[in-house]
Amino acid sequence: MKIGIIGSGHIGGTLTRRLSALGHDVTVTNSRGPASLGDLARETGATAGTLEQATEQAEIVVVAIPLRAVPDLPAGRFEGRIVVDADNYYPQRDGEIAELLDRSLSSSRWTAEHLKGARVVKAFNNIQAQHLMDNGRPAGASDRIGLPVAGDDADAKRVVMELVDALGFDPVDAGTLDESWRQQPDTPVYGTDRDADGVRQGLADARP
């Protein structure tokens, strides 16, 4: 697939490496511009581009940036596209966002409201980058990690779940975007590398 990745930090850089290795056509961008991505591009074979180039004709766009930067994204570039929201809300970094502080809104719903028309799916936000890089396993392996995937668009969620599986993790349907708070920081599945059954249990055990 043609995949754009917005953000080249821990998760964005890791997905650039992993998805390029699987043979996808990856274009990665960041706020510092393509010139800052030369080393990553040479290492992975991905294209270092602008945001416009990363979203142009992309079948999937991964957003892996500080949450506070989401409102600065040009929403029109994402309309109709599958957008994988790999972000987390950290108040100490992102500042106070009232509806996220009191958890009346999931961070993915907040993101979807800024990127109106995008088919937003929450994934890759609860796993450490190094584990995403190193701990993929074949289907059926006893130590395969489960990853929650949440979204409102059933087809978009299916595509992302297939991608999670291809990366070596068991995709677990985590419900809608409004339910995606169950995989946010300070929940049982956040950063805990559970298997698929453990993820399902952790999602059920989460409390607001």
From TrEMBL:
Gene3D superfamilies with a match to the protein in the record: NAD(P)-binding Rossmann-like Domain
InterPro entries tied to this protein: D-isomer_DH_CS1, NAD(P)-bd_dom_sf, P5C_Rdtase_cat_N, STEAP_metalloreductase
A GO term, aspect molecular function: oxidoreductase activity
UniProt KW keywords: Oxidoreductase
Residue stretches making up the Pyrroline-5-carboxylate reductase catalytic N-terminal domain: 2-88
One Pfam short name: F420_oxidored
Domain of life: Bacteria
SUPFAM superfamilies xref list: NAD(P)-binding Rossmann-fold domains
Entry protein name: NADPH-dependent F420 reductase
Organism whose genome encodes this protein: Micromonospora carbonacea
